Amino acid sequence: MLPDFPALKAEIQRIILAKLRLRIDTGDPVLSQIKGFTQHEGREMRYEQHGGGTVQEGFEEIGTGFEIPIADVPFLIGEKLNAKLEEIAQDIIARSAKRFFKKVGESSEKAGTSMDAGGKPVSAELLLDMTEKMQTAFTSDGSPLGSWIVHPDMLPAMKKASEEIENDPELKRRQADILERQREAWIARESNRKLVD
Amino acid sequence: MLGRVIENWLTSINERQYQIPFCQVLAAEGETILYISTHGPFEKGKDVITRTAAGEIRAYQLKAGNIGLNDWHKIYGEIVSLVELAIELPGRPPITDFVPYLVTNGELTVPVVEQIRVANLTWRSRAVGNELRVIQRGELFERFRASHGAYLPRELTDFRLFLELIQRDGSAPAEKEKAARLIEYVLPVKPQQQTALNIARSATSIALLTAYITGPAALVSNHWCIFEYWVLAGAYILYLIEKFKKAEADCQISFELCEMAAEGALTALAEECVHRSDLVQGFPLVDGHTYRARVTILVGLLSAWDLFLRIRHKPRDKDDFVRSFLTTRLREASMWGESAVPYLFLAALESEENCRPHVAEGLAIQLIREISTWNSAFATGRGVSNPYYSSGEALRLYYSLDSLNSEQFVGISYCVASLIDFLARRWRRQALASLWFGVTRIFLTSYIPVTSAEWFRWRSSDGILDSHLAGEPQSWESLRNSAETLSVQELPPTLVKRPEFALWFILVYPHRFTPAVVKLIEDALSKSGS
Q: Which of B332, B345, B338 lies closest to B291 in space, CA to CA?
């Protein structure tokens, strides 16, 4: 074989993989908010899904392929290596996000929490219907927790619908009623976290 | 090359260190072990007593190193006891007709051989028919090597791993992952082709390999490390029995020897603790980082030892010491992660057995509170490490020495469910009520191996990670009922039959600390009537 430095390269590889992992974990604004965990044994997991009963499933591999032309190898350090890692990370993030939204869609469908707008444009009515259907948690000062994730193309329509609610007293009152019901439901859920007879 | 390793090991240890492996060799050769000395004042010159398949009784006196004339004169009294004193075994008449053996991992000088010849003549003239025989290094080594049969590391990678293990720093914690990998390399792989004899031989090999890899730890009296390796070996022998569903009787002696060696390590550790005025180990300037973890390990190991003796109804000559050790040291213990929970749990059980239920239940309450706070789904940190992280690995995370590790632990706990059951069985409703809000913020998780054999693998591949949320609300009545009636049938039958081994198993395999194992241990203690 040609002269090599396996221990040094193993150490560099460890650092590079940790960097890549960090980039993947923090690279997407939605996925980075999801807490993950590592399963150390076994090939399947079982858990209870809200409205979906007990789910038992295995793992799905998410990965990507990449090519390194031999001619690039001497230059694959520093910025160039970082750029390569970024390319790999972005590919994996895109695949993970696609898989995530597919899974969320399937789970919502199963739990009966999905809504089909039937091709209608986003409106204040639709926004209020969606707010009603979402299970919402609240902070200790009473503010609702949660995020809306929308495609950038939909953002102007969402903003417009929000402003419509803000400027129409009737819609605003309906929104306040919905939030109040949500708050009551949340308090009821939180107060259920107890031992009873 | 492997022969050289065995030979090197055999010649570098003392008689107490090769006693158990030697018994394993005798058992593999077909002798039934009747007695193994604990080196107390009543041993009467006999370290091991066996019966051959033909019914012949044999008594062995073990020595280490070369034996010259001076050494012979020093041990002569013991040799006379070996040859002349009758063997007394419980429930049997005294045995005067047996074959005495002097065994050494060194060699006898020519004058000593001559002394033995004349001594045998003298005994015969006095109508003592027990002729002293000798086993020296060469024969001993050959018998060790032969006992492995085909079950030895042969591939280069296995062999490299073996060398790595026997050359480790003896003062370090056990390298369980590597030891398990080595054992799995030498296990039989095709169940349908295995005879009971081959399975038993594989068990023999596990025990002998374990003896070799405990060598470095034995040289520096690292009892914790020795204990862990022998429990790992015992677990893998149970794996063999469960996997092949036969040869339990043939493997039993190997299992018992592992158990005996593990017990010996704990006994030696207790002895050392009795004589220690403090628990500082190594360079005091940096020991503060590991001191509390050491105390946790010690309270757990001593409790495991005493609880084991209780279940087995064996004499407990240091029960007062264990009690006072827990009273004074438990406050210095800490939880480095969920792999510390089995240690603290056994300390809780021991406290309970010592009529201090408030300490036991207080410990369980504190553990639930800490884990459910740090691992709450809304916690901001990474949480308390899971039981797959050893004490050393967890401390590395805690002191930020593992900067490349980004694993998160929030949102789940592997141990809280078992602790909830423990408190529910003690009717601690108010305490649980105060903890319940926090408990509902984490997934209660346990790994369920698909087969009984998988339970004993260091890392199982065939199983399901089961997670569920605590009830919201949770009926106290149903919680208590389910905790009290929890079935242990999901556990491997070999473990159910050996609940005292489960005490040690959860220390060495903290990822198998499940509600059913905890129930098994509690039931055994309750039945032991201690």
A: B332
Tally Cβ neighbours within 10 Å of residue B180: 20
* Domain positions in chain B: 2-147, 156-260, 276-528
Nearest CA-CA distance, residue A50 and chain B, Å: 11
The set of residues, in sequence order, having a beta carbon less than 8 Å from that of B395 and lying 6+ positions away, is B289, B290, B293, B336
**Chain A: closest CA distance from residue B493 (Å):** 21
- CATH code 3.10.350 for B2-147: no
Report strand pairing: B412-413 vs B443-449. Answer: parallel
Q: Which residue's structure tokens are 């926090």?
A: B438
- Taking CB atoms and an 8 Å cutoff, what residues of chain B touch A189? 472
Question: CA B95 to CA B441: how far, in whole Å?
Answer: 66
**Residue B69 to residues A105, B11, B74, B121, Cα–Cα distance (Å):** 86, 20, 9, 18
Q: What is the pLDDT of residues A173-193, one digit of tens each?
A: 999 999 999 999 999 999 999
Contact B473, A196 (CB under 8 A): yes
A192 touches chain B (CB under 8 A): yes
Listed in sequence order, the DSSP H helices in B172-281 are 176-186, 196-213, 215-219, 223-244, 248-275
Q: Is the complex ipTM higher than 0.85? A: no
For chain A, the structural domain boundaries read 6-32+45-111, 124-191
**Residues of chain B falling short of pLDDT 70:** 1, 39-42, 149-157, 189-193, 530
In this complex, the residue of A37, A42, A193 whose CB is nearest that of residue B447 is A42
